[in-house]
Automatic annotation (TrEMBL):
Residue ranges of every copy of the DUF305 domain listed in the record: 86-228
Protein name, per record: Uncharacterized conserved protein, DUF305 family
Taxonomic superkingdom: Bacteria
InterPro entries listed in its UniProt record: DUF305_CopM-like, Ferritin-like
A matching Pfam family: DUF305
Length: 229
């Protein structure tokens, strides 16, 4: 952890406030550091150089800590603007989610009972809004999005083939349940693979948070579906 110390003079008394901020490798500092600096400086009435807040940034293992000024700390913030890996992940995950909804839409009339119908309803309720959020993000960040039927998306991990979807549409009752669970487990595993990859190659904080959510939520659902099979 890094310790932020800021000082101000109030009636000749030196007042100190401290904030704990997250530490990143190679002295990279998070946005919370800047917020802390702003809050700290807000109560300062002096204009002397000695009153300016500073940040003690821990060094790498075996290296000494470094003291940074406000400007230096701001420049040390990592660049989290979306890179090609982030844009590709979000674009592909929109299509990936869309195919999941194609499958869940069949459950109400095709499944044998409430267990599979309930599972499908939960997946639909979670991934439908996520599609809207990701499409809005792509629009803001200059990306593009397609549909689950685009040719380029067929090779994504876990995507069902056209033949598999056709067979699912024809299935009823227990046979539908079996096919649905098999396809959705593979689909979720593919999403976890995609999310793991973007955590390695992407750099956008928001995309990283989404990827971590996908890993946690869909891994839990995989375990539940395996127990149902």
């Amino acid at each position: 952890m890094a310790l932020l110390m800021c000082a101000s003079k109030d009636d000749n008394a030196l007042v100190f406030s401290s904030y704990r901020v997250a530490t990143l490798p190679a002295l990279a500092l998070t946005a919370s550091l800047i917020l802390a600096l702003t809050s700290c400086d807000g109560g300062s009435g002096g204009d002397s150089a000695s009153a300016a807040p500073s940040v003690i940034a821990p060094g790498a293992p075996g290296e000494k800590a470094t003291t940074l000024s406000r400007d230096e700390a701001a420049k040390a913030l990592p660049d989290d603007s979306p890179n090609p890996a982030d844009l590709t992940y979000v674009t592909n995950m929109v299509a990936h989610h869309q195919q999941a909804l194609v499958m869940t839409a069949l459950a109400d009339s095709h499944a044998s009972g409430e267990r599979v119908r309930g599972l499908a309803a939960r997946i639909d309720a979670a991934q439908g809004p996520e599609i809207d959020v990701m499409e809005a993000w792509l629009k803001t960040n200059g990306g593009s999005h397609g549909t689950a039927h685009d040719h380029d998306h067929a090779s994504m991990p876990g995507m069902a083939t056209a033949a598999q979807l056709a067979a699912l549409r024809e299935a009823r009752g227990a046979e539908f349940d079996r096919q649905f669970l098999r396809l959705m487990i593979a689909h979720h595993r593919g999403a976890v693979t995609m999310a793991t990859e973007v955590l390695t190659h992407g750099r956008n904080v928001q995309v990283g948070e989404w990827a971590n959510d996908v890993i946690a939520q869909q891994s839990a659902e995989i375990a539940r579906m395996r127990a149902m099979g």
